[in-house]
Design a protein that fits this description.
It is built from four helices and seven strands. By secondary structure, it is α/β, with parallel strands linked by helices. It folds into two domains: about 40 residues; about 80 residues, Nucleotidyltransferase, domain 5 (2-Layer Sandwich). The strands form two sheets. The protein has a five-stranded mixed beta sheet. Strands 1-7 form a two-stranded parallel ribbon. Helix 4 links the parallel strand 5 and strand 6. It is rod-shaped.
C-alpha cells in the first residue's frame, strides 16, 4: 500500500439550510461562533445614565444646606433633643431652620415657638456682630433660655 503524504483531507462545508427552516439553523450557527469582540456602546450608555443619577442626587443633597463657615471651639457639648436652628450667613441673611426670613419677621416667628424649645445659632465666622446681637436680643426678649451656638471642634 502506498501513502501519499502531500494530500490533505478537508471536510466539505455543510450545505446551506433549506428555505423553510432556516431560522433555527442560522441560530445554531451563530451560537457556535467564537466570541471575538464586545460591543461597549450599551455599557457606556448605562454608565452615563448612572453618572447622571449620582450627580443629580448629590446636587439635591447639597442644595438643602446653607453654606456657612462655623467658628471653632474647644469645649463642645452634645445635644439630646432636636433644636430649632437660626442661621446667620456671611452676607447677613437670616434663616430659621432652612427658610429665609427678614429681621422684622424674627420676633413673630419666635412667638409661635414654645419657650422651652432649644435654639441653636449657626453664625458664619465672618458674619457681622450686629446681626448676631440682634438675634440674641430677640431670643432673650421672648424668654428663651436654652440658647446655644454651633461651632466646629478645634
Amino acid at each position: 500500500m502506498r501513502v501519499i503524504s502531500n494530500l490533505k483531507y478537508y471536510p466539505s462545508p455543510s450545505p446551506p439550510p433549506a428555505r423553510g427552516g432556516g431560522f433555527l439553523e442560522r441560530l445554531k450557527m451563530e451560537q457556535n461562533k467564537e466570541f471575538r469582540e464586545m460591543n461597549v456602546i450599551p455599557l457606556v450608555d448605562v454608565m452615563l445614565v448612572l453618572l447622571t443619577i449620582v450627580l443629580t442626587t448629590a446636587t439635591f443633597i447639597m442644595a438643602g444646606e446653607i453654606a456657612i463657615n462655623l467658628p471653632k471651639a474647644e469645649n463642645i457639648e452634645n445635644r439630646s433633643t432636636a433644636p430649632l436652628f437660626i442661621t446667620i450667613t456671611e452676607d447677613e441673611r437670616l434663616f430659621i431652620d432652612k427658610s429665609e426670613i427678614r429681621e422684622n419677621e424674627l420676633i413673630p416667628r419666635l412667638q409661635e415657638i414654645g419657650k422651652e424649645q432649644p435654639i441653636v445659632i449657626r453664625a458664619d465666622k465672618n458674619a457681622v456682630v450686629r446681626k448676631f446681637v440682634f438675634v440674641i436680643d430677640a431670643l432673650k426678649g421672648e424668654g428663651f433660655k436654652k440658647i446655644s451656638m454651633e461651632v466646629l471642634e478645634k
